[in-house]
UniProtKB/TrEMBL annotation:
PANTHER family: ACETYL-COA HYDROLASE, ACETYL-COA HYDROLASE-RELATED. SUPFAM superfamilies: NagB/RpiA/CoA transferase-like. The keyword Iron-sulfur does not apply. InterPro entries: AcetylCoA_hyd_C, AcetylCoA_hyd_C_sf, ActCoA_hydro, ActCoA_hydro_N, NagB/RpiA_transferase-like. This is Acetyl-CoA hydrolase/transferase family protein. It comes from the Bacteria. Gene3D superfamilies: 4-hydroxybutyrate coenzyme like domains, Acetyl-CoA hydrolase/transferase C-terminal domain, Glutaconate Coenzyme A-transferase.
Length: 421
């Protein structure tokens, strides 16, 4: 779609000319947030003349606050990051959708994007966030771009030019980052168990946080690993820089890593900048089960808040508090299950303070059904549930629970007739 391509000084931007009452406004998550635009939107929210909604990914800025609910309704897929304050205030409206379905489930009116400055051919880049923004870019009524001099220029599927946007404002400000979490002994132990399922030539998908970072760090002796993931992080950048991630054996997109968003510190951003070895794609590609199933030895590594004795996974909420997301877990697990030599894996610490995260019954929704369970990994080992009966699963799950909870879990399993006396 050809748009106006009007360049406007950031200080003179009047968003009331573009956002209407009742509109849904969206932007990139984490480091992909165009902070000048979102700050302007909040400052000018009352001038719009009526309530409007915003769709949020994982927020790393504190731009949105509960008091902004005087004009804004907050819609999100995740309770993580700075969204937690909105959730605690009872203001976050959750869309419990698979990550791959956002482009079909969300109808965006105004899209705010952060882009890297145009290259020598006049092509702009969506920088660190492509994922679900690509379909929004095509279908939104209005698209406003923050051209950030500090944003990495990354390779994507579209040649974006000035007339891909209605309005462009120019800024130069550091991207939002997330501190690189240092793994503790629990994470390192889980990582060693998980690494046993990752062989040379495997292609990896992983999330953000200390546990995925620990798993990636445990792969220093592997060869020719590949990456096809929703999220590209510091650990993946480290492995690629060391020549461990080469993508040389990938059966799809050989020679390049594929990701939808870059999250992390300057390490990941610097690696991504003008690096053709990293190709950014939309969610309809990164999370497509048909694509994933064609990648041999595809290992999907996803996390959970808790897992029950039969393999049901809760990745969203515990005791009424929305902490996570449905996310792309099911998409990737199903893709790995279809992959030749693939491994669908859930990793989590076995305990949280004084409670077990291996439970007889979930304390929240079943984000992933037990039919999609594969390998569950805690610091006490790995339970490969593939092909096992319910009773066999229960036995294996109890073995990877904290020792002090195993007897009570077994009693619960008998009470719920999952085990016979």
């Amino acid at each position: 779609m050809k748009r106006a391509g009007q360049h406007v000084d950031a200080a003179a931007l009047d968003l009331a000319k573009h956002v209407r009452p009742g509109d849904l406004v969206a932007w990139g998550q984490s480091g992909g947030e165009p902070c000048t635009l979102t700050e302007t939107l909040v400052a000018q929210r009352r001038a719009i003349g009526g309530r409007f909604s915003v769709f949020l990914g994982t927020a790393w800025s504190d731009t949105l606050k509960p008091e902004h609910a005087d004009a804004i309704d907050f819609i999100a897929y995740s309770g993580g990051g700075q969204n937690r304050a909105l959730a605690h205030a009872g203001l976050l409206h959750i869309v419990p959708s698979h990550y791959s379905q956002f482009e079909h489930a969300i109808d965006v009116d105004v899209l705010l994007v952060q882009v890297a400055p145009a290259d020598e051919h006049g092509h702009y880049s969506l920088s660190v966030a492509y994922e679900y923004l690509l379909p929004f870019l095509e279908h939104a009524r209005t698209v406003i771009a923050e051209v950030n001099e500090a944003a990495p220029w990354t390779y994507g599927p579209y040649a974006l030019t000035a007339d891909s946007f209605d309005v462009l404002v120019h800024t130069n400000r550091p991207l939002l980052t997330s501190a690189r979490a240092a793994p503790g002994e629990t994470e390192l132990t889980i990582a060693r168990h998980a690494a046993d399922f990752i062989e040379d030539g495997a292609t990896l998908q992983f999330g953000l946080g200390a546990l995925p970072e620990a798993i990636l760090s445990a792969l220093q002796d592997r060869r020719d690993l590949g990456v096809h993931t929703g999220l590209f992080n510091d650990g993946a950048a480290d492995l690629a820089t060391r020549g461990i991630v080469t993508n040389a054996r990938k059966t799809v997109d050989r020679g390049v890593s594929v990701a939808g968003v870059v999250m992390g510190t300057g390490i990941a951003y610097r690696y991504a900048h003008r690096n053709p070895a990293l190709q950014m794609r939309g969610t309809s590609y990164t999370h497509d089960i048909g694509v994933l199933s064609r990648i041999d030895r595809f290992v999907a590594i996803n996390s959970a808040l808790e897992v029950d004795l039969t393999g049901q996974v809760n990745a969203e909420a515990v005791n009424g508090r929305y902490l996570g997301a449905v996310g792309g877990g099911v998409d990737f697990l199903r893709g790995a299950a279809r992959s030749r030599g693939g491994v669908p894996m859930i990793v989590l610490p076995a305990r949280s303070r004084d409670a077990s995260r291996i439970v007889s019954q979930l304390h929240g929704p079943a984000s992933t059904p037990r039919a999609d369970a594969g390998v569950i990994v805690t610091e006490f080992g790995a339970a490969d549930l593939r092909g096992l009966t319910l009773a066999q699963r229960v036995r294996r799950m109890i073995e990877i629970a904290p020792s002090e909870f195993r007897a009570s879990l077994e009693d619960d399993a008998h009470r719920h007739t999952l085990l016979k006396s």
